[in-house]
Design goal:
The protein is an alpha+beta fold and 1471 residues long. It is built from 40 helices and 72 strands.
């Protein structure tokens, strides 16, 4: 596969909207315990480019690796040591902290880095920059300006001055492991052949050039060399393409002649630029020139000028001083900073260091694309003058190159020209890091960043800054697989456009008047938001494969954002986890930020070894322990408490005292004796000739390795060259170690306001979703689509009785797929052919788009399918006669659904279902006409009394009014007139029977105007019960009045009595008719009706009609809050108090409206739907969120069909800690509804050269103001402070998971360092605290639980969990069981009182083993199946298998053996 370059550095002169003034830096070199090659390189860059250590000779970079493997060594941050990556001892640090002898360096550190070094403490050195600064100061204190450059001399200096007790060979061996940098370089030597050089220095220069080129890989695809010489004038000795091998190149260098004339340095630089780089330099190669001179030119001014022009053309200039130098001129020639680009050679023995310096700087130098020239890269033509520049990269991702763009050197703003950089990506992601200050921006150190992903290009408007500084860009790309797309050619295009743009004015027109646009104008322009703000984060491939889980590979890096990572559960779901406080993820630790790291392979600790990773040890930062079974291994604890066994390197063993692996010398006899050391013999041969034993001053032996191609020689006490060794030039085959971890920038997400469309989120179709919300949503769907029109609440009750709404442990037991409603396979199969239920199957197909005949039993693990199967089966059995009375439903359940159980079990479980409570204003609209008859009218009054008897009557609950109608209507009594049941019954009995006509319309109108509008409470749900036979005087008038009432937010039930007209009842009732029309065959069904009224009423929406009022507009107040002050005209306010628990209400809007929701000390999610009158987190079309300080604005259009939109407000109060110091005594939200679209009728236009047109993305990109208007986030959900629950007490109690305080699609996971990780549930699923996971997992378990004992084998294997086996018997106690969470953790839980665990049924059952079993075949043959036990309220029931089951009598009864039944306590005859 062709892939792209991993890193591209881009330089632009840039201004405009994105950067002005000082940039805000992201600087990970100041991050506690940050580590890695990228961190080290950034620190070295900062120190070198600020000239704090101007002569470091690559020593600082090497030292970081030798001392701590760039901080990745396990002992880097060992307890009690704070020397950091460079391992600076406290005593050595103290030498630098006074700045004596380091005054100049300390001043630079203060002036440029704003660090007062004398105030720094040793503990600060765990930050990489501080450790690097300390090392650089220490080295300069010891070496002055004479830091050695040759590797062997650096090794000697290190052993003598930095790391006493180790040998030079160790240093040399380690630096060989530092992966080098390779790149294409076009290198031009600009050689001074003037008389001031002298002939002998000239010969030395030729030899120097030859030695430098030997350190490079010469060739058409590697480095190419050209030479220009100058004296009185300049001449081209040879070009880049003339000599492409070492032999030919050295021969050409030997032919260069010595002129001994003047010093026309400026001509030499100019000739190299014009005749070498501009004519034959390769497209994509880094341009480097080495000016070798003494710096005494004929014209300092001309030399400086030509050097400046050459550097601006993208050539990196090194100035190499030789002989009697002029340092000022060398500084003027060289690229900045001079301290790394001016090299004064003390001797040619340092050539290897010069080569490394050139390669290092050159490979990281930008390729400058000058907009005044035509340049191509990698064979791609570039036509800047033709408006567009298009460059495509298709390279291996582990390669590295550099690239730069430079705009015209004129002021773009003044000329009307603009430069635009666009990055487009195919099958991947590209991050662009930018900086004005840092020429090497990266994920470690940058000013700004943005991201381009597949289908979502990144756009930058470029301009010249006020002071002409370049902007540096680094592009970091990663290939990416996209489902359904051919990604064999992953690449990205960088397009640079230099275009003329006239000044564009963005204006808003409203009602014919022109004005400046405001932020609110853009809230209603979703097209602009999509165009300007969309971040384009791609779907992430799921790494949680079966193979990965079986290998316990549960943690994976995020593919392009290292502030996140992915954790797998054993159901192959992935959880995206945010690192704390912007820290970065480390694959070595499976955690983020300042955690101990190890980059070796590791396996999980076996059960035969005690896990040392206790909460206390990890809280104390003890992460590494000896592995008792093998000293060449050690135990590494991650921050989650997992123990991993890691291997030491070859011939190394673990040292617990040193917290690292050390040389293994115990297999050899110790040759280190005092007499040998006194003789100066400290090195002894090893069985491997490439190694030796080194004795330290304490006579400890250390196995050391010789450098490659050398062997140990005892006589010389050194490593010497092997006779057959062939020396290779340094760097010839080096490869760069590129961090392959992709990067991603989290952009500010735009808050979208939109005209609503249906794009439903429907968790009822989510596999294994459970809970009361899920069940209620399923029931709503089935009822409101009239699939089960006469369910009589049976379906809701059945879900709880069968599986506790799916929360029972055995709901999804192995090989059972009946789901929440526990539908047996045979029962399901009987519904599949739709015999006798054809109409329901047709409705399922038409309204839910489910072909029931194609559904399989396995589909019933999805809640909607399970509910549909249950509803179809119930109707097959009962037809339209589903019982409504609770006792009859219980009998039906026993006889037809769950044989072998008892009615009282159904009844007792139903009574546990939480009842909804709300304020209801309930008006009875009673038909007193002659068609009813007096007998039926008395039944109506009795019915009303029976209904009200089951309601809580009072000012904070239900208030009742009554209207009767015959020829005309009258108000019998209004709301609040009677607050006791007795008084209400007297009033009901006083209602007169008129026996006249049937003016139903008058009755409904009188109720609406004379009762609801007159004295209905503002925060109560309005419900009207029209009780009639349905034969009104005027059907049209009745229907019209019913429509007016429903439009006013009154929920109408039509109760039919006697010989009814069902058509009229359907027209009167609210939708759907099947849940709002009741035909009362017997008054014994009142309890079902009352429950139906309460359920529908409590969930009925508050109607909001925003109209121009004549006086103050109405204020609707919910949740018991005090009504707000009157808002302006054309508006209606809805306010609500927030509590510690989630609160919700429903709103119904019919007219076009603008809604603004603001919150004080809380969060409000607004769920929206046109189709579902009860939108919720389970089932909705769209949602918006408002948080404290971040209101949500939503424009709601009226649909073509005139359907209302339904809104559900779900609010939660923030905990005091999250609210900070704010006073949250009045925690509430306010939703303001304003008539019409307050922003939708505003036209946003762009005017260019007095011509109006539609605005483009570029128009807004040119203006920081309007981009901020469009893209500013109004959600604010991430701006709220979340209290860290990961306390020491919680961790010691193994409380590692916590719900997010206000977003149930997230949860908090703790590590043992008391850091919290905010974890996003997969695919919008919700978190369950009982299972410590999200969505479609095994049943959520509530109750206390403790970790599994260490001496009990953990049954939660990867295979078991992948097979959905989550519950196991606990061998020590049958009143407990083991619950596996999806992470593989085993928890011990208690069965409820008097129950024991049964593995076969996967649940807790009655404990019958404490009594002798009375169940014998002889007793069963006599028909005796029930026996007494000690508790008279219980009995033993024998099944056909002679198994005893302890059962309970219903309340107030005791068991009677004689009657084989439970009887009333007073009539007991216990046998």
């Amino acid at each position: 596969m062709n892939r792209w370059r991993d890193s591209l550095v881009t330089v632009l002169f840039i201004g405009g909207f994105l950067w002005s003034g000082c940039e805000s830096l992201t600087d990970r070199t100041l991050e506690e315990r940050a580590a890695g090659a990228e961190i080290v390189q950034a620190v070295v860059d900062i120190i070198r480019e600020n000239c704090i250590y101007p002569n470091d000779r690559v020593f600082l970079r090497r030292l970081a690796f030798v001392q701590s493997r760039d901080g990745l060594d396990v002992g880097t941050f060992r307890p009690g040591f704070y020397g950091g990556i460079w391992q600076v001892d406290e005593s050595e640090f103290n030498l630098t902290s006074t700045c004596l002898g380091l005054e100049h360096q300390c001043k630079i550190i203060k002036d440029r880095l704003n660090i007062q070094w004398t105030s720094v403490a040793w503990q600060n050195l765990t930050k990489p920059l501080y450790s690097g600064l300390a090392a650089s100061l220490l080295l300069q204190l010891r070496a002055g300006n004479n830091t050695p450059g040759a590797a062997d001399k650096q090794a000697q200096f290190w052993a003598n001055n930095y790391q006493h007790g180790k040998t030079e060979s160790f240093f040399l061996t380690e630096i060989q492991k530092i992966v080098g940098v390779t790149c294409q370089i076009d290198l031009a030597f600009i050689v001074d052949t003037s008389g001031s050089i002298g002939y002998f220095n000239f010969i030395d220069m030729l030899n120097f050039m030859k030695k430098v080129t030997r350190g490079l890989t010469i060739g058409q695809s590697n480095s190419q060399v050209a030479v220009v010489s100058f004296s009185n004038s300049a001449r081209l000795e040879f070009g880049f393409e003339d000599h492409l091998d070492h032999a030919s190149l050295e021969k050409a260098i030997n032919f260069i002649s010595y002129d001994a004339g003047g010093t026309a340095t400026s001509q030499g630089i100019k000739l190299a630029r014009e005749s070498v780089f501009q004519t034959s330099s390769r497209k994509g190669a880094t341009k480097v020139a080495l000016v070798i001179t003494d710096g005494s030119s004929d014209s300092f001014h001309h030399t400086g000028t030509e050097a400046k022009i050459t550097k601006e053309a993208g050539v990196v200039l090194f100035a190499l001083g030789i002989g009697n130098i002029n340092k000022a001129e060398l500084n003027a020639i060289a690229s900045p900073p001079e301290c790394t680009h001016v090299i004064v050679l003390a001797g040619f023995s340092e050539i290897d260091n010069v080569v490394q310096e050139i390669e290092k700087a050159a490979c990281r130098a930008p390729i400058v694309v000058d907009s005044n020239s035509v340049i191509g890269i990698n064979g791609t033509n570039v036509d800047i003058h033709g408006v567009r520049l298009n460059i495509t990269y298709q390279h291996q991702i582990d390669a590295m190159t550099t690239l730069a763009f430079v705009t015209q050197r004129t002021d773009s703003n003044a000329t009307g020209t603009h430069n635009v950089l666009e990055v487009k990506v195919n099958c991947g992601v590209v991050q662009v890091y930018t900086s004005y200050e840092n020429p090497h921006p990266s994920s470690v150190f940058y000013g700004q960043k943005l991201t381009a992903t597949d289908g979502h290009p990144a756009l930058l408007f470029l301009n010249k800054t006020s002071d002409g500084r370049p902007l540096y860009l680094t592009s970091v790309g990663s290939p990416y697989s996209i489902k359904g797309k051919n990604c064999s050619d992953s690449n990205y295009h960088t397009t640079f456009a230099h275009i003329n743009i006239s000044k564009v004015e963005v204006v808003c027109k409203e009602d014919g008047n022109e004005r400046p646009c405001t932020k609110q104008d853009f809230e209603f322009q979703s097209s602009y938001k999509d165009m300007v703000c969309r971040s384009g984060e791609m779907n992430i491939p799921n790494p949680c494969t079966t193979t990965a889980l079986q290998n316990k590979e549960l943690y994976h890096p995020h593919p392009y954002d290292d502030t996140k990572f992915i954790r797998c559960d054993y159901q192959q779901k992935m959880y995206v986890i945010h690192c704390p406080d912007g820290q970065r993820y480390s694959k070595g630790t499976d955690a983020c930020g300042s955690t101990p790291m190890t980059d070796v392979e590791k396996v999980s600790l076996g059960s035969e070894v005690t896990n040392p990773c206790t909460p206390q040890s990890l809280i104390n930062h003890q992460f590494f322990f000896a592995f008792p079974q093998d000293k060449t291994k050690y135990i590494h604890c991650d921050v989650w408490g997992h123990a991993w066994v890691a291997n030491c390197s070859s011939n190394m063993e673990w040292s617990q005292a040193k917290q690292t692996c050390i040389p293994d010398v115990h297999t050899l006899s110790n040759p280190c004796t005092q007499d040998k050391v006194d003789q100066g013999i400290t090195m002894f041969p090893h069985s491997d000739p490439h190694k030796y034993i080194h004795c330290d001053n304490a006579l400890n032996p250390w196995v050391q390795a010789c450098t490659p191609r050398t062997v140990f020689n005892f006589d010389s006490q050194n490593c010497v060259w092997e006779t057959a060794a062939t020396l290779c030039c340094f760097g010839q085959n080096s490869k760069m170690d590129v961090d392959k971890k992709p990067r991603f920038v989290v952009l500010v997400l735009c808050f979208l306001s939109w005209t609503l469309v249906v794009s439903a989120v429907d968790r009822t179709r989510e596999d294994r979703a459970v809970g009361a919300d899920i069940v209620q949503a399923v029931v709503d769907i089935i009822r409101e689509n009239c699939i089960y029109p006469n369910d009589r609440i049976f379906l809701r009750r059945l879900a709880y009785v069968e599986s506790k709404d799916g929360l029972n442990t055995d709901t999804f037991r192995p090989n059972f797929y009946g789901g929440i409603w526990q539908v047996e396979k045979s029962e399901f199969e009987s519904t599949r052919h739709c015999y006798g239920i054809e109409d329901m199957c047709r409705l399922i197909q038409e309204k839910l788009h489910i072909d029931w005949r194609s559904v399989g039993w396995h589909d019933l693990t999805k809640p909607l399918y399970s509910g549909l199967a249950a509803s179809l089966r119930l109707q097959q059995i009962a037809g339209n006669s589903t019982p409504g009375v609770l006792e009859r439903q219980a009998e039906f359940w026993v006889n037809n659904y769950n044989k072998g159980k008892y009615p009282y079990q159904f009844i007792s479980e139903v009574q546990k279902i939480p009842q909804e409570k709300c304020q209801i204003d309930l008006a009875f609209i009673l038909d007193g006409s002659g068609s009813i008859t007096f007998i039926n009218f008395l039944k109506i009054l009795d019915f009303v009394k029976n209904v009200t008897k089951q309601l809580e009557i009072g000012p904070n609950a239900v208030e009742v009014a009554a209207v009767s109608f015959s020829d005309y209507a009258r108000v019998e009594f209004g709301f609040g007139a009677f607050n006791t049941q007795n008084a209400l019954n007297v009033a009901i009995d006083s209602i007169q029977y008129d026996a006249g006509g049937t003016n139903t319309a008058s009755g409904i109108r009188t109720a609406r105007l004379g009762v609801f509008q007159h004295n209905s409470r503002p925060n109560a749900v309005k419900v009207g019960l029209v009780i009639t036979d349905g034969y009104s005087n005027s059907l049209n008038s009745t229907v019209l009045e019913a429509m007016y009432a429903k439009d006013d937010g009154i929920t109408l039930f039509a109760i039919g009595i006697g010989d009814v007209n069902e058509q009229e009842l359907h027209e009167v009732a609210s939708r759907p008719n099947c849940t709002h029309v009741f035909l009362i065959a017997q008054f014994s069904e009142i309890d079902s009706l009352v429950y139906e009224i309460m359920k529908a009423a409590c969930r009925a929406p508050v109607m909001i009609n925003v109209v121009e009022p004549t006086e103050s507009p109405p204020i609707t107040d919910i949740f018991g809050s005090t009504p707000a002050t009157s808002p302006p005209k054309h508006t209606t306010n809805l306010t609500g108090n927030l509590t510690n628990s989630t609160t919700s209400t429903f709103v119904k809007l019919r007219n076009s409206t603008t809604m603004n929701v603001s919150v004080n000390c809380g969060i409000i999610h607004v769920y929206v739907s046109y189709d579902n009158p009860h939108p919720s987190p389970v089932l909705y079309s769209d949602k918006v969120t408002a948080t404290d300080g971040h209101p949500a604005i939503l424009y709601i259009n009226q649909t073509v069909a005139g359907r209302p939109v339904y809104l559900a407000f779900v609010g939660t109060q923030l905990p005091p800690e999250a609210a900070g110091l704010k006073n949250c005594n009045d925690s509430k939200f306010t939703a303001t509804f304003t008539e019409g679209n307050t922003g939708g009728h505003v036209e946003i236009i762009c005017r260019e050269n007095n011509v109006e047109r539609e605005c483009t993305k570029l128009d807004f990109t040119l203006s920081e103001k309007y981009k901020e208007f469009i893209c500013s986030s109004t959600g604010g959900i991430n701006t709220l402070t979340i209290t860290n629950p990961c306390t020491a007490t919680a961790i010691q109690s193994n409380q590692m998971y916590f719900p997010h305080p206000y977003d149930d699609t997230k949860f908090i996971k703790c590590d043992y360092q008391q850091k919290m990780y905010i974890t996003q549930c997969p695919n919008g699923e919700r978190y369950h605290q009982g299972s410590h996971s999200c969505g479609s997992t095994t049943a959520t378990i509530s109750g206390d639980k403790t970790p599994l004992d260490h001496d009990v084998t953990n049954p939660c294997s990867a295979q078991a969990l992948m097979n959905h086996q989550f519950f196991f018997a606990y061998s020590k106690d049958n009143t407990k069981f083991i619950h596996c969470d999806v992470w593989g953790h085993a928890w011990v839980m208690d069965c409820p009182s008097n129950l024991i665990w049964n593995q076969q049924t996967q649940t807790c059952i009655e404990d019958t083993h404490s009594s002798s079993n009375p169940c014998t075949q002889a007793m069963l043959d006599q028909g005796i199946t029930m026996f007494p036990i000690k508790d008279p309220h219980k009995y033993i029931h024998c099944d056909n298998g002679l198994n005893p089951w302890v059962q309970s009598c219903v309340g107030g009864t005791v068991f009677s053996y004689a009657s084989q039944n439970c009887v009333w306590d007073t009539a007991s005859g216990l046998g």
